[in-house]
UniProtKB/TrEMBL annotation:
It is a multi-pass membrane protein. Its main location: membrane. It comes from the Bacteria. One of its GO terms (cellular component) is plasma membrane. InterPro entries: MFS, MFS_Cyanate_Porter, MFS_dom, MFS_trans_sf. Pfam families: MFS_1. This is MFS transporter.
């Protein structure tokens, strides 16, 4: 009897390219980093800003709590709204403009601190979950979503970690909050730009992997035939 044919080998998995060469991945990562920076700067320094504006320490502490409480329901609503839209640019614009109003208000009218606290609660409470939602919406597959999340959160938190420190250094160097808050307001511009780019319809497209490599390991090119076993006499 003829020998049974050997079962066909399973096809090798397609190599996944690097996200570091994907513009959309960088748009999402930078937007997440700036949104995180805004949140951590305000959470860290808003009590001090409000105290310097004339509010009692207890009141300034309540303002930070209020900012965070205002953002809680938005953490549920904004992702649902964004996921229902094919294009999230209008949501990004609304969120970022809210940050402009809140930070600008702290600069020109700090005495109205309660109003700006609520506005900033809306802005930070929306931007942070929106950034996480874009991670999912811009990913064509769960594996890409996981890799994009790792890239965006690593870079984002590194960027955000410098925010509170830089604000403190600027405050100490200038003796007030006008310069630090103005810089924070300037950073809203790139947040808007990268947020609008990240919110456009489309997906992250990982760059093609280098030939001969698969997940960081060398593999034999398919075009080369398998070596024949040595013949014995």
């Amino acid at each position: 009897a003829a020998p049974a044919a050997a079962p066909a080998a399973a096809p090798a998995p397609a190599p996944e390219g690097s996200l570091l060469r994907s513009p959309v991945a960088w748009y999402v990562a930078v937007f997440m980093g700036l949104a995180s920076l805004m949140f951590y700067v305000l959470m860290s320094w808003l009590p001090e800003i409000m105290q310097d504006a004339g509010f009692a320490p207890a009141t300034a502490g309540m303002m930070v709590s209020t900012m965070m409480i205002v953002g809680i329901p938005l953490g549920f609503l904004v992702p649902v709204l964004a996921a229902r839209l094919r294009d999230q640019r209008a949501v990004v614009a609304g969120v970022v403009l809210t940050m402009v109003a809140g930070i600008g208000g702290l600069i020109v009218a700090p005495a109205a601190g309660w109003a700006w606290t609520i506005v900033l609660g809306i802005g930070t409470g929306s931007a942070f979950p929106l950034a996480y939602t874009l991670l999912s919406l811009r990913s064509p597959s769960p594996s890409v979503a996981a890799r994009l999340s790792g890239m965006a959160q690593t870079g984002g938190y590194l960027l955000a970690g410098f925010g509170p420190l830089a604000m403190g250094v600027l405050h100490g160097a200038t003796g007030g909050w006008h310069v630090p808050l103005t810089l924070l307001l300037v950073l809203v511009a790139p947040e808007l730009v990268f947020g609008m780019l990240a919110a456009r319809p489309g997906f992250v497209r990982p760059a093609a992997a280098r030939p001969g490599r698969l997940d960081g390991r060398l593999v034999e090119p398919k075009s080369l035939p398998a070596a024949e076993p040595a013949r014995t006499r």
